[in-house]
Amino acid sequence: MSNTPPRAGKKPFKPFSRPGRPFKGRGGRVLREAAPDFETGTVLLYGWHTVSEALRNGKRRIRVLLATENGAKRLEEEGIAAEPTIVSVREIDRKLAATPDAVHQGLYAEADALDAPDVSEMPAEGVLLLLDQITDPHNVGAIVRSAAAFGVKAIVTTNRHSPEATGVLAKSASGGLEHVPFVMVQNLSRAMLELRERGFLLVGLDSEGDADLDQIKLREPVALVLGAEGKGLRQLTRDTCDVLARIDMPGVIKSLNVSNAAALSLYAVTTRLGLRS
User: Fold this and answer.
1) How high is the pLDDT of residue 39?
2) Strand locations in the chain, DSSP E?
3) pTM of the model
């Protein structure tokens, strides 16, 4: 890796690490599918909102921070304390070679994953989102972004059949991962039972639900459960919900993309519970 010389009169940026020195992730294994020199146990972040929000988050440990001159200048103009390694656009493109059409806006970071609470540790208040094997990282990222906008306390999803909170998901979340805990569980229905014991109302969103979401009786705390597009909620997940609700719409098309359904349901629920005032 070669650094672009700093402009005359400017204090050179100090790198977080020596260029070319790989970081060891958990177990020291290389995450081959992400990039040639990107290692496992590390979260990949790129793009302005994603990286800048991570830099503002005091709980996020940044291991590597690369920026083009324009990216570094924007960080400075926004008052974000950072000392990136200045590189060319091509160098960041190379880092993201395994992520087609990645729009990095001159910023790239490798960071530790954020600590997430256990289901049993989450406060019994507000709104949670539970994702039942939603696998598309773009959809999950968009859901995280909406969750941050509506003050969701946490997102709960499964260890298997779910994307990791890195790369495309993080970019789609547009910084939302820094504000909403992303909790992974082994068994979603078991986590739902635990949440019920702690007072949560479990509302499954289903196109064939018994009642419109606007009509069901709501109370706080509530957990909204969303299923994958096409498959919807799995049978055991459906059976574990307290109520199945649908979103009635006046138009010809009656189904929504799961991320749009999440945003619409969050608007309806937070409005009815008075959580947006």
Assistant:
1) 53
2) 43-46, 62-67, 85-86, 107-111, 127-132, 154-158, 182-185, 201-205, 211-212, 222-227, 243-246
3) 0.83
pLDDT in tens, 121-156: 888 999 999 999 999 999 999 999 999 999 999 999
User: pLDDT value at position 45?
Assistant: 96
Provide CB contacts within 8 A for 42, sequence distance 6+. Answer: 23, 25, 31, 63, 110, 111, 112, 113
Q: Could you please report the per-residue DSSP string of 3-23?
A: PPPPPTTSPPPPPSS-TT-PP
CB neighbours of 223 closer than 8 A, spacing ≥ 6?
127, 128, 129, 130, 156, 192, 195, 200, 201, 202, 203
Nearest Cα neighbor of 92 from 25, 37, 55, 143 is 37
Domains of the chain with CATH codes: 26-111 (3.30.1330), 119-272 (3.40.1280.10)
